[in-house]
Amino acid sequence: MQHYDVIVIGAGAAGLMCAITAGQRGRRVLVIDHANRVGKKILMSGGGRCNFTNTGTTPANYLSANRHFCKSALARYTPWHFIEMVERHRIAYHEKELGQLFCDESSKLIVKMLLEECASAGVRIETSCSIERVLHGEGAAEAPFRLHTTHGAFVATSLVVASGGLSIPSMGASGFGYELARQFGHDVLPTRAGLVPLTLSGKHQERLADLSGVALPVTATCNDQSFSNFMLVTHRGISGPAILQISSYWQPGDELHLDLLPGQDALDTLQRWQRERPAAELKTVLGDALPKRFAQRLCEHWLVNRPMKQYNLPELRAMADVLQHWPLVASGTEGYRTAEVTLGGVDTDGLSSTTMQSRHVPGLYFIGEVVDVTGWLGGYNFQWAWASGYAAGEVA
Ligand SMILES: Cc1cc2nc3c(=O)[nH]c(=O)nc-3n(C[C@H](O)[C@H](O)[C@H](O)COP(=O)(O)OP(=O)(O)OC[C@H]3O[C@@H](n4cnc5c(N)ncnc54)[C@H](O)[C@@H]3O)c2cc1C
Q1: What is the DSSP letter of 242?
Q2: Residue 327 alpha carbon to ligand 1 centre in Å
Q3: Which residue among 79, 276, 304, 314 is the one 20 to 30 A from 168 at the CA level?
Q4: Looking at ligand 1, which atom is closest to the CA of residue 49?
């Protein structure tokens, strides 16, 4: 039976950061992962360049049943702490937009950096190791956690659950962390896919399917939250950053508003077009403001196409309403298969917001995506993983 001070389940972003922090404090740390290599999601993130943080991170960029829970950890491990590590390892990076930092070369460098930090902190990592059972309280008081795995049995003083969410099952995602949380008396809030493309059905899908690949800027609004960015039409529905962002706020049955002329007053714009180009048809003027095929499709199904001079004011008002509140009804999401994150998870009510430690079982910690804290698109999810991993690593 091998004894560790800290066993971390999951060698993803949060688990590795926790292991580094605890290892640097002189703790004997073992990280166990059932996948054959560490940090698979880091490797595939940001299109292979890992959007590793966002310099504008604030608690407002996260969804959680308790909006305050993430504050303490985010304040103590900021984007600048992670940037310091990235710079120390001489990894070149750039800001893409809105504070999003990406590697110039490859996400592989972030995984390499984390592994080097683990090695110098004396952290042991076991990959391709499946956990069969987790027992608590049966052995010595100083090592209350006992894990039976395919690589043997281990005991630990502290157990950190960093097994992530349910998104991308092909990358090793599992519901293991939620099962473990329930085993130890924690509530798990309902989970659902977030940062995920939305699907359309019936006439909505038929009308748009052949426009797959067309992208345009929109403002997407749902449940009092808005995002202005690009929307991309797909074979089965809509995607692109604006839609991925709003998908985390949308649930079946919720109204989704899409403003196709973001930042403009649609009625003013239509009246200006009417004054400036009275003889031109709507689809022509609209085709100068939006992708042409998309404008044409709008005029076939949602608007009536005529020369601009032929519309009276009530008609212009009705058209402005369609353009500013395009009545598209989403039928669902593409689900965990393509979702970047899982919303919901281990209820933060059962955890300390400063240490991530369980309020029910001393020495048990939950960090990263398995917890009910989910970030927006743009590096916020990794920042939560680093910050919550650091918070637990400081005390475990
Ligand atoms: C395609 C994609 C792109 C993304 N891009 C970005 C981005 O650019 N920026 C950003 O901020 N976020 C991004 N994300 C989100 C980000 O990857 C996650 O929020 C983050 O990885 C969560 O870290 P974590 O350590 O909690 O979980 P994970 O990174 O998922 O790690 C969990 C680990 O636990 C292991 N595990 C699971 N079950 C078990 C078990 N039963 N036994 C042992 N081990 C287990 C898994 O194999 C995995 O290694 C992206 C996600 C996806 C899917």
Answers
A1: H
A2: 35
A3: 79
A4: 8
Alpha carbons within 13 A on the beta-carbon side of 120: 7
Mean pLDDT of 92-107: 96
Q: Give 206-252 pLDDT, tens digit per residue.
A: 999 899 999 999 999 999 999 999 999 999 999 999 999 999 999 99
Helix (H, G, I), strand (E, B) or coil at 322: helix
pLDDT of residue 173: 86
**108-120 and 79-88 are packed helices; what angle lies between their axes, rounded to 10 degrees?**
90
> Ligand 1 centroid vs 13 CA: distance in angstroms?
7
CB distance 228 to 251 below 8 Å: no
For atom 42 of ligand 1, the residue with the nearest CA is: 34
Domains annotated on the chain, with CATH: 2-193+342-393 (3.50.50.60), 198-333 (2.40.30.10)
Of 151, 340, 343, best ligand 1 pocket probe by most atoms within 8 Å of the beta carbon: 340
Instruction: Report how far ligand 1's centroid is from the alpha carbon of 42 (Å).
Output: 7
Tell me what pLDDT residue 139 has: 74
Q: How confident is the model at residue 53 (pLDDT cuts 50, 70, 90)?
A: very high
